[in-house]
Amino acid sequence: MGHVFHIQRFSLHxxxxxxxxxxxxxxxxxxxxxxxxxGLRWEIALQYDSKKCVSCGLCAALCPNGVHRFSEGGVHLVxxxxxxxxxxxxxxxxxxxxxxxxxDYSPEELAALCSRDLPYYRNGGxxxxxxxxxxxxxxxLRETAQLCKQRGVPAIIVDTAGNxxxxxxxxxxxxxxxxxxxxxxxxxxxxxxxxGASNLEILENLKRLDQTxxxxxxxxxxxxxxxxxxxxxRAIAGFLQPLTHVRQIRLIPYHTLGRSKYAALGLPEPPxxxxxxxxxxxxxxxxxxxx
Amino acid sequence: xxxxxxGIEFTHIDAVAxxxxxxxxxQWAERTYSKPIQYWNKNGAACYYTSDAIxxxxxxxxxxxxxxxxxxxxxxxxYRFQTLRKAEELRQRYEDLLRDGRSSVxxxxxxxxxxxxxxxxLRGGFPYPNYMLxxxxxxxxxxxxxxxxxxxxxxxxxxxxxIKAALKQNFQGFEAMRQYLLAVPKFGNDNDQVDFxxxxxxxxxxxxxxxxxxxxxxTVSPALVGWxxxxxxxGISATPDGRRYGDPIAEHYxxxxxxxxxxxxxxxxxxxxxxxxxxxxxxxxxxHLSLPRNLGDDDEAGLAILDALVLGALDSGLxxxxxxxxxxxxxxxxxxxxxxxxxxxxxxxxxxARFVDLCxxxxxxxxxxxxxxx
Lengths: 291, 374
Ligand code: SF4
Ligand code: SF4
Prior knowledge:
The structure holds 2 protein chains of 2 kinds.
Chain A: E1 2-11, E2 19-24, E3 46-48, H1 58-62, E4 68-70, E5 76-78, H2 88-92, E6 98-100, E7 103-105, H3 107-114, E8 126-131, H4 138-151, E9 155-160, H5 166-172, E10 178-182, H6 188-195, H7 200-211, E11 215-222, H8 230-240, E12 246-253, H9 260-264, H10 278-288
Parallel strand pairs in A: 2-8, 8-9, 9-10, 10-11, 11-12
Antiparallel strand pairs in A: 1-2, 1-7, 3-6, 4-5
Helix pairs in contact in A: 3-4, 4-5, 8-10
Chain B: E1 9-12, H1 15-23, H2 68-100, H3 105-108, H4 112-117, E2 131-134, H5 138-154, H6 160-168, H7 175-183, H8 192-216, E3 221-223, H9 229-235, H10 264-272, H11 275-280, E4 288-292, H12 299-315, E5 322-326, H13 328-336, E6 345-347, E7 352-354, H14 360-368
Parallel strand pairs in B: 1-2, 2-3, 4-5
Antiparallel strand pairs in B: 6-7
The complex binds iron/sulfur cluster (SF4) (2 copies).
C-alpha cells in the first residue's frame, strides 16, 4: 500500500502533454517555502478547512479526545496533536470541513485511476509521480509504474528532489521514462539552511541519473532572499552544464499558493518570501537558458 | 419567406424542471424567492420566467419511496410524460402546418432534395426527419438524482421533507446540508455512478421517442441539446444537488458549470459514457468545453495539449466537441468595465455574441463554465 494525498488529472505543468499527477506523501526535505505541506509527512492526518465549517458542533460532541473546541466567541479551535484519527468527526461532519489529508492505495487501484485518461496520453503525455518525495515509496512506485506500463501508459515521469539513496532510483528505473529533478541550491551550507538537509547526495544522484540516459527536466525554485542571487544560480547552471540528458531547465518563481494549507493541517505558518520581481527573474533566466 | 413555415420544427423539454415536478408529485415546489431576469441581451426587458414543462401529472409521492430505484422510476415516469407531451405538440404542429398548406418558398428552396423532387419539406420532399425534440441539462438532473440517492437512501443523512424545507428557503439556514449535498459526486468528474445515471436518462429519452414513432408513425428525433439553461436556472427552485436558485444549470449534455473539478478529460470521459444514447440521437449532442488560457508553457505545448484532447475525445466516442478558450480574469474585467472590452466575442449557445452585450446572468454563466485546470 502507498500513501497518496492527491491525484490531479489534466495536469499540464508536470511534464509534456496531458498528464495525471499523483502526489505521494512523505518528504525527506523541509524546504521553508514548501507549498504542498500535505506531502511533508508520510502519516495520514486530520485536515480541517475552516472555510467550509458551519460551526454545527457535531465534531466537538463526538470526538473522544477533545480535539475540537469552541471558544467563547464561537471560534472553532482544533488541537491536532490530540487526534487519534478515529475518523468519527470526519464521517459526521455535514459540510465536508474535516478530511483525511491523504489515503492508502494499492498499486492496482492507483494504476487503474492513472489509466482513466489513457486516450489523452499523446504527444509525450502520461503519468507523473510527484509528492512529497515519490521515491521515498520506491517499491510501491515501482509496482504502480509497472502496472501503468502494462495498461499502456506511454510516458512515466518521476518528479523528485533527489534526496534519497541511489538504490531508490535503481528500483524504479526500468519503468520510468524521464525525471523532473529539483535543484534548490548548489552550495551545501545554503541548501542545508534552506531545506534542512545536505545536497551532496542529491547532486551525486543527478550525475548518476544523467548517465542512465533518461530525459531530465530540471526545475529550480527561485526563492527571494534564499537562492535568488546570480552567483547561486550561476553555480547551479555550472553544475548542470556537463550533463548530457538535460532536456529543459525551468525556473519556478516562489508563490504563496498553498500557505493556507498549513493552518488546515495545524502546522505553524511558514514565512512569506514575497514575490520574485520580473527583472531578477529575467536575469536568472538568461543564466540558465542563455540565448 | 414565411417565418415559422419552414416545415422544420423543434422544441425542447426542461429536464431540471421535470425533476422539480417529480420531486413534488407533479406540482411546482413551494419557494420563497423569485427574480426577474433579462434574457440574452442586456437591453431586453427583465421578466419572470417559468418553465414550459407542465404541472399536473402525479408521478408519485417521493416520500413513499423505500428505495432509490422507486424514486428513479417516479422521475422517469414524469420525464416520460413530459417527453411524450412535447412529441405530441410537435405532431400537432405538423398537422396544423399540413392543414394550412403554406410553406416558405425561400427556405425550402435552399434544399437540393426539395428542388430535385419538386416537393416541399411538408410534403415529403426532404428525406430526413425534420422534427426534433431537445432535452438538455440531463447532467444536472443526474447530479440531483445522485444527491438524493446518497443523502436519502444510501447514507440516510436527510429525509426528503428536510431537503424540501431547505429548497423552499433556497438553503438559507441550511448551509451544512448544502455543503454536504455539494460534496456528493457530480457529473463531469468521471465518476461512474453519477455519469451512468445521467446516461440512463438520455437512453430512456431516446427510446421513448423510438416507441412513439412505432405507435404513431410520426418521427421525432431526439437531441441531447438544450438552449433554455439560463431561464431554467431562474424559472425553477433550488435543487437537491446543492444548487441555489439562479445558479447555473447544465447546458446541452455538459456538466453543471463549476462542478467539474477534474479537468476537461474527465468531462469528456463522463459524457462519453452516454455514447449509446448519443448514437441513438444521431450524434446530436453538443459538447461545449470552455478552457482557460495558458494551457501549455508556450504555444507549441498548448497545441500539443489541444491536439491530444481532441483526438482522445474522438477515440472515446464523441463526434462533436466545441472548444472555446477564455481568460476568466479578462471577462471579469469586462463586466466591470464594458466600455474598454467591447471587442470580446464569446460562444453563447449555437451562436456567438459580444460579451458586453449579454445580460449579467448570461455573463456569469459564461464565466462559470470555464473549466478549471491544474
Ligand atoms: S478523527 Fe477522531 S480523534 Fe481525531 S478529531 Fe476526529 S473524532 Fe477526534
Ligand atoms: S462537524 Fe464540521 S461543520 Fe460541524 S463544527 Fe465540526 S468541522 Fe464544523
